[in-house]
Every structure is written in C-alpha cells, then in structure tokens.
Amino acid sequence: MDIKWLQTFVTAAEYENFRKTSEILYISQPTVTLHIKNLELLLETSLFEKKGRNIILTEAGQVFLPDAKKMIETYDSSLKRVDNWKQGYDKKLTIAIAPFIASSIFPMFLKKFFEENPHIDVTINVVKSPDIGQEVHHGKADLGISRMIPNQTQLSFESIWDDQVILVAPKNELETESFKEEDIFQKYKLITHNHPVYWDDLLPRIRALYPKVRTMMVTQVEITKQFIMAGLGISFLPKLFVQKELLQGDLIYIPTKQLDLPTSHMYFVTKRENKEVVDFKLALFNFLKNY
Fold it and tell me: Is DNA-binding given among the entry's keywords (predicted)?
C-alpha cells in the first residue's frame, strides 16, 4: 500500500471533491482518481460514491477513514523519529504558543534552553491564545503558553508570570510639571483589543472617565507597538512586552492616577506532565524570574 494513496484518500474524504483534492496535493485529477482506484482494488470495495458534482464516503470508506489517518500519522511519526535520531535528538516537545510571546521574549529563552538541552527537539506552533487549549487538548502540542485561561476543563493551567499593565505613548510625550493625564487621551487615539482578556473590562472604565476618547482596534501587540512608535496612538500593554522599547526610549511610560489597571498573566497549559514538560516549565519560570 502506497502512503500517497492514503494521503489522497484522506484529503478527498475531507473536501469531498477530486478537483479540490488535486489542488491541495498539487497532483493531477487523473492521479487522484488512480490513487483511489488502486486503494479500492487493494481493499476490494468502493470508498466513494458520487453525489452531484461531489463525492461522499461509502459505508466502507467511513469505516476505513480512521485507520487511514492513523497509518499516515504513524508513517509521519516514524520518519520524524529517524530524522531526530540522525540529528542527535532523543526527546521531543511540541509547544503551542501565543504569537506575541513567541516573537518577544521567547527567542531569548529558547536560545538559553537549547544551550542547556541540546538533545531535545522543539517544534513551535504559533497559535492564537483562544485556540491554544484546543491544540493541547487534542494532543497536537505537549504544552501551551497562552495569555488566557483555556476553556477546556480537562486541562491544567498555571500562571507563570503576572505582569502589570501600563499606559505607553510615543517617545515625544515627555512628562512635565504641566502634564495632565487627560491630555494624552484627547491628543491620541486609544489602541485597543491587543490583549485577549482585559479590554472588555478596561475600555468601559476609560470611556467613563474620558467620554470623548477616540479608539482604534488593533488585535496584535506587535503591531500596536509599531503604531505607537509611529505616533498613531497610545495603549495599555503588559510591561514585560514593552520593557525593551522603554529602555531604548522608543516608547515612554505614562503614570495613571485615575484608573485601577489590570494584571496580565502568562499561562502554562498542559494535559499531562512528563519529565520534559516539567523541566521546560521550570526553565521558563526561572528565565522569567531573572529577566
């Protein structure tokens, strides 16, 4: 049995269309048909039946589909294990991580982690925080690093970093004796919803204090920082994630007296903890503590 036949079968079962299957797999439509026919000859049964312009699985196809997926997964895993062995790895970790964590402090941590653990192969899946729990729950990741608590009750989570949210502004806004907090909200748009948790609570409180504030929704922290540095607005961001820009003078911190600001959390999400996961968590915690 050719693994390509199985890959074609599983893709065709998902899209229920041979033309779409050929586009996804970058093979010709006659090749798709040939792969399915070869598989049907081997199994001595039909796997699809026509339904208008599309196809649907027969009862035999529905029975065979889970096994085909397992065979592909086993094949891919076997190749990966051999490749890891050739590269000198004897352990593997797959991590689902929120985009901004992955692009900010995580590279510095990984560099240190690899120096101390050269035998561990790490795969990074960059996933939005709301979807990280699903990745861990379905076994697509050994652990998750998220900015929000997962919805899946079967998962364990732990806050490994608590960070104060602060107001940041373009560097040309230097505080003086005549500086007033409300001035900054009148001058700039408030960039919102760059964090998946605290804006639904924080924004109404800001509007209650400053009813005329203008807002602009930007859903990524990295883009928010770039917009602020370009003078397009101000925002409330976790201090850890703007620390470098504050030290370099690219952004400035604006103290707030009128608002009780929230705390941002970084969560370590797991379904089951083995030695590699526990060691990774401890290494990350120690890195953050000394950052």
Answer: yes
Nearest alpha-carbon partner for 198 in 265, 285, 272: 265
Helix (H, G, I), strand (E, B) or coil at 78: helix
Domain CATH code at residue 29: 1.10.10.10
Residue 186 pLDDT > 70: yes
Distance CA 82, CA 85 (A): 5
Residue pLDDT, tens place only, 135-173: 999 888 999 999 999 999 899 999 999 999 999 999 886
**What is the percentage of the chain residues whose pLDDT exceeds 70?**
94
Query: Domain span at residue 242?
Result: 164-262
Residue-wise pLDDT tens digits, 24-63: 999 999 999 999 999 999 999 999 998 888 899 999 999 9
Instruction: Classify each residue of 213-235 as buried b or exposed e, where b means 16 or more C-beta atoms within 10 Å of its C-beta.
Output: bebeebeebeebbebbeeebbbb
Count of domains forming the chain: 3
Where residue 191 sits, what CATH number does that domain have?
A: 3.40.190.290
| Angstrom distance (rounded) from CA 110 to CA 49 | 50
Of 20, 55, 86, which marks where a domain is finished?
86
Residue 158, strand partner residues: 268
Assess whether 121 and 179 both reside in one domain.
no
Mean pLDDT (the chain, rounded): 89
Q: Which of 56, 86, 116 is at the close of a domain?
A: 86
Q: Are 9 and 35 spatial neighbours (Cβ–Cβ below 8 Å)?
A: yes
